[in-house]
From TrEMBL:
Its main location: cytoplasm. GO terms for molecular function: rRNA (guanine-N7-)-methyltransferase activity. It holds the Pfam family GidB. The gene is rsmG. S-adenosyl-L-methionine binds at residues 82, 87, 135-136, 148. This is Ribosomal RNA small subunit methyltransferase G. It comes from Caulobacter vibrioides OR37.
Length: 216
């Protein structure tokens, strides 16, 4: 009998721990700290993230988002579908700021959330473009399309189809039910995917999607 796997909880990082783990610059750390402040302030009047996750921001939100860059280190253009509070898109934009040609498209259908994203983008002077639109109604040419807590994989791939068809790599942050979601998605879509462990949650996975087409 095989012993049961033991889930090792990730460290609960503060700003210094996040910087030590990721190598973020002082300027990037300052921007991320300012984003945390804005997120906490707006979360008082708008449902952006779970209130308890503000306390674990550096692990749950900053690290969770930043880890995507390791899978596409040369990618300059990203689309974050269902951007909501700006995760992972705002964190990615902070880390990409200053790189020539960098642009993160924040795609969000709820107008009030777009207003929050506009405030953050202006405050932090981020290389972003905010689209108050449904993800599947746009057809942006980007290097990577991403999403977190947006929709189950079957529906998410429908949202991402226009971007994937134009050559984007898919990098999607998913939780412990990812295997079930992928099995269901394969009934509607032909695709290959790799699963990578999450640095921020031992139950989480990053789904890297490639060779994508619709089941005929």
């Amino acid at each position: 009998m095989q012993p049961e796997a033991v889930l090792v909880e990730p460290p609960v990082l503060d700003a210094a721990g996040y910087q030590a783990m990721t190598g973020a610059s002082d300027a990037q750390l300052a921007d991320l700290a300012r984003y945390q402040t804005l997120l906490a302030e707006w979360n008082e009047v708008m449902n952006l993230v779970g209130p308890l996750t503000i306390a674990t921001y550096w692990t749950r939100h900053a690290l969770d988002s930043a880890q995507l860059l390791a899978f596409a280190p040369d990618a300059l253009t990203w689309a974050d579908l269902g951007a909501g509070a700006g995760l992972p898109g705002v964190v990615l934009a902070v880390l990409l700021k200053g790189r020539a040609g960098a642009r993160v498209h924040l795609v969000e259908s709820m107008t009030k959330r777009c207003r929050f994203l506009e405030v953050v983008a202006k405050d932090l002077d981020l290389p972003v473009q905010i689209h108050n639109a449904r993800a599947e109604d746009l057809s942006l040419k980007v290097d990577v399309v991403t999403a977190r807590a947006c929709a189950p994989m079957t529906k998410l791939l429908g949202f991402a189809e226009p971007y994937l068809r134009r050559g984007a790599t898919g990098l999607f942050l998913k939780g412990q039910d990812v295997a079930t979601e992928l099995s269901e998605a394969q009934k509607a879509w032909n695709f290959e995917s790799d699963l990578h462990p999450s640095q921020s949650d031992p139950r989480g996975r990053i789904v890297q999607v490639k060779r994508f087409s619709r089941v005929r």
